[in-house]
Amino acid sequence: MIMYREELLLRSKDVDLHQRLRTSRLFELLQEASIRHTEQLGVGRDKTLDKGLLWIVGLQRAQISRMPVYDEQILLKSWPGDTMHLFFPRYYQMETAAGEVLLRASALWTLVDQETRKVVFPEKYGVVIPGEPTGEEIGLPSSPRRMELTETVPFRVPYSYVDLNGHMNNTRYFDLAEDCVPGSREGRPLRLIQTEYVSEAKLGDELRVRWGCDGKVFYLQGEGEKPVFRMRLEYGE
């Protein structure tokens, strides 16, 4: 079976003030697992970055039963789905050492030309990643359902948020979101996350982040000269 496995022990740098795995760190772990597994499957930088191609994540979804906590041993699994023309589905599962499923997630990745920033046809570059469904997949992510927006926060992309692709890293949008809305800092447990990355935000770009809530559900969107991201966060008690 094509499956990536990694055992992790959560350290202080991984968690927030409530000792739970930080949301941005969760998606860093998923991103890093995606990259390492893709390399193991024979699609390393020699076929992508060295040829001027960048991996870009467009949509993400996570369903959370319980966020792991400080000093907890966890197992992260990841595997690819069947390629969908220009899109590479990827699935994730995080478990305790005893086998309790903590969360499941999915994402849609694609390749873009580093210079033009346009999506490329992967077969043209010999990029092939076979999928192998396990039956444990959650549904693929889709655009978050929108809500009424009542709050607005200005934001300028800082140097520390920009990655090797030359834009604000996808994981940093979760830090931005949780700095804006009160759910996580109040200690409410996240249950569902849906994110769509519409366009790039580069160093120094000024965004207008707008958000609204309906009970336990928060919706955010960021826009500069054009829409940049959309996110939906659903919390439990």
What class, by secondary structure content?
A: mainly beta
Spatial gap, N to C terminus: 38 Å
Task: Count all strands and give the number.
Answer: 10
**Unreliable segments of 5+ consecutive residues:** none
CATH architecture annotation of the largest domain = Roll
Mean pLDDT: 95
* Number of H- or I-type helical stretches: 2
Q: What characterizes the major β-sheet?
A: 10 strands, antiparallel
Molecular shape: globular
Widest beta sheet: strand line-up: 1-3-4-5-2-7-10-9-8-6
Task: Explain what this protein looks like in three dimensions.
The chain has 237 residues and is mainly beta. It folds into two domains: 4-125, Hotdog Thioesterase (Thiol Ester Dehydrase, Chain A, Roll); 151-235, Hotdog Thioesterase (Thiol Ester Dehydrase, Chain A, Roll), CATH 3.10.129. Helix content is 11%, strand content 37%. It is built from two helices and ten strands; from the N terminus they run βαβββββαββββ. It has helices at residues 23-40, 172-180; strands spanning 4-9, 53-64, 73-80, 88-96, 101-113, 151-156, 190-197, 206-214, 217-223, 227-235. The chain has a ten-stranded antiparallel sheet with strand order 1-3-4-5-2-7-10-9-8-6, covered by helices on one side. The chain is globular and about 45 Å long. 36% of the residues are buried.
